[in-house]
Amino acid sequence: MKNEINIGLLGFGVVGSGVAKILHDHQDDLSYKLGVPVKIKKVLVKDTEKERDTELQRDIFTADLDEIIDDPSIDLIVEVIGGTSEAKQAIERSLLSGKGVVTANKDVMAESGLELLKLADENKSDLFYEASVGGGIPLIRTLEDGLSSDRIRALTGIVNGTTNFILTKMKHENKSYEEALAEATELGFAEADPSADVDGIDAARKMVILSSLAFSTEVRMEDVFVRGMKDIKPGDLELAEQFGYTVKLAGSAKKDDNGIEVAVEPVFLPNSHPLSSVNNEFNAVYVYGDAVGETMFYGPGAGSLPTATSVTSDIMAACRNLLLGVNGKRLHAPQHTCKVKKDSQKFGRYFHRISVKDKVGVLTRLSAVYSKFGASLATVIQHPNKHDGGADLIMITHEISRQQHLDIMDELKNTEDVIDVLSHYRIEGELS
Amino acid sequence: MKNEINIGLLGFGVVGSGVAKILHDHQDDLSYKLGVPVKIKKVLVKDTEKERDTELQRDIFTADLDEIIDDPSIDLIVEVIGGTSEAKQAIERSLLSGKGVVTANKDVMAESGLELLKLADENKSDLFYEASVGGGIPLIRTLEDGLSSDRIRALTGIVNGTTNFILTKMKHENKSYEEALAEATELGFAEADPSADVDGIDAARKMVILSSLAFSTEVRMEDVFVRGMKDIKPGDLELAEQFGYTVKLAGSAKKDDNGIEVAVEPVFLPNSHPLSSVNNEFNAVYVYGDAVGETMFYGPGAGSLPTATSVTSDIMAACRNLLLGVNGKRLHAPQHTCKVKKDSQKFGRYFHRISVKDKVGVLTRLSAVYSKFGASLATVIQHPNKHDGGADLIMITHEISRQQHLDIMDELKNTEDVIDVLSHYRIEGELS
């Protein structure tokens, strides 16, 4: 049995320095739990000369990946470089050399997760990736272990802290999108180029990882319907509130006999839904299982120490496996081939906000469009529109397919007296 | 390597029949994940002749525990009998015979958890108990694995569904305690004798289990301060609401350099706290860790299938260990001896509702009591009291020790013009 575990840490940014801090500060507890100490033996950085605020010895920093991969005393590689090609290569090389890997890299895991897990299985190595989704919330583990006996039917998640922060500020402090984004950037919740966040790409990657695991299948980015928050129009959040809903950029994944559907889009969530009160930069994932019913897991979706907590818990799990000699014993091959539903098989209620000319008969003409496509309406409300003498019509449908929704949208745009379809949302999280 | 896992199921009540149903309905998924099938080989019941709605063969039911313990083909015992002495004996005998055990028994685990875990370690067997706390929510696992790298500082939980259901009905539907309890009983959320629930005993047992694990120490029932919901007076819930709080029967566990404190009592939770919107029979545990910050885990706290999900996930974990030959390799000895704080070391803000005679100088006399014990007040409000011409005084303190609070209570009762201290609550979940 090994008398210590040595780690090669790739990257020393926000997460990497957090991992070093936790391993240092909690070393007594961690080595008590494992029975042996866990040490960072080498750290890969671009610039070894840079001044760093750390307890680690200066001479363990290196710019040469080979030095780490070729060190036989290193048992475990922790990849927190971020990005894709360099990180993916480093993970592959580590696994091929028989070392276990812990990664926080959602981009790599969303793009090549199953390929890398297969490589890990083939090389009798472990690959853990808890920190790739939901920062400090133990979600991967919960799906793999805690709910392992259940059949997951649906999963709804607020998995992007930046957009949730922006929407919270817009709703609760009446800020504009631009003001809220500026505040998020200032506080470090948004990157200089926030497009991956606000366009829903970041959330989509996390939904690929979660839904692949929840449904034991291979979901790819192109299987996810993605709509960012740019389609949210001024006034939409207030309108949602009037009807008892909160607008969230949510990921959703569902499975039924026809297949799966995975989406990231701004949705209306009922205010009674536990996800609707998840605010600021927090993340939460709501899981619906056949047997367990509703559960929800809430916590910080990002940040140095929260993310590092997940990485370090993965390190603990990998160490345990190494110490027991059962590393690489987990089967990751998906149980099911991935069948993505057609738009005609995806059902939901929709909220449509339509700008019309305020003329006799306009409501009749519009409701005829819904009837034509077999959609029945739950709510119809006409708001006079102050600025142009027209009106805003709110139409909330009963359950229809996404195909019906799209057909109605198209037809409305060509309907007499319709100026524009201002906005449209799917209503998520209602019992059907 | 084994080619199947055989289970001896002790008990076939609400949870036991749920476990049988999940193992039957999800068998394809479970055996895919494990690589081998998992079968219930024998079931212990009192009456083998009773008609049961189950897919299990009738001849596997037995009233003889020996038949199960002595069957060498049975690898794993699942104890869902409930109660204490019979269940504890059965667990001990199973562990001594080298079989792994999965239990849902909070009474046994709160009373003898560490003793049984030690017995498991000595006999190289596993003892899993996820279902003993929080029904379908994977809490034990989260503390053991997901947050294994962190240092837990505090844990607040709504861990009793019955009392939470009653308080929700009282708050949201203006029912009296008696009406709400009657409804809970009718819906099967409360037992015929609800005293273990409403007196806080059930929640205290769960807090013993959670805090022992979170702080890696041995917390016993006598270390927990317990106050049931009978002290909640009519009008308290409305008063709480006026000040922006919700009354919850909450478990709390905290640790600092002076030691630990564990309590179950009705508390005021700020409405902005995620636990305040956990309603009906749902449970949730809020965990505060050094590194991760705030996380929360929410789900059904009881019920046949939710609880059975946790039991079956434990079965999966035990099976994996058996198949890998690493059963009984987990160290359960607590890292720290348990040091319980004195009342003078437990700090919090307190809400006091005091009935007084409406006389000149009464407020001066009362505030002098607070000053005498060094307590400063954050809020003082006087409400005329319609029925007896007196008044209700609301005093909300800044942070004081529990000892100060108790001293003030005592002194108030002997203060001129004080009719009674109607109610008092600690305020939980505020940032200090």
UniProtKB/TrEMBL annotation, chains A, B:
GO molecular function annotation: homoserine dehydrogenase activity
Keyword Amino-acid biosynthesis: yes
Catalytic activity field: L-homoserine + NADP(+) = L-aspartate 4-semialdehyde + NADPH + H(+)
Keywords assigned by UniProt, alphabetized: Amino-acid biosynthesis, Methionine biosynthesis, NADP, Oxidoreductase, Threonine biosynthesis
Pathway, per record: Amino-acid biosynthesis; L-methionine biosynthesis via de novo pathway; L-homoserine from L-aspartate: step 3/3; Amino-acid biosynthesis; L-threonine biosynthesis; L-threonine from L-aspartate: step 3/5
Gene3D superfamilies according to UniProt: 3.30.70.260, Dihydrodipicolinate Reductase, domain 2, NAD(P)-binding Rossmann-like Domain
Pfam families reported for this sequence: Homoserine_dh (PF00742), NAD_binding_3 (PF03447)
Domain ACT, residue spans: 351-426
Oxidoreductase is among the record's keywords: yes
EC top class, as a word: oxidoreductase
Protein's recorded name: Homoserine dehydrogenase
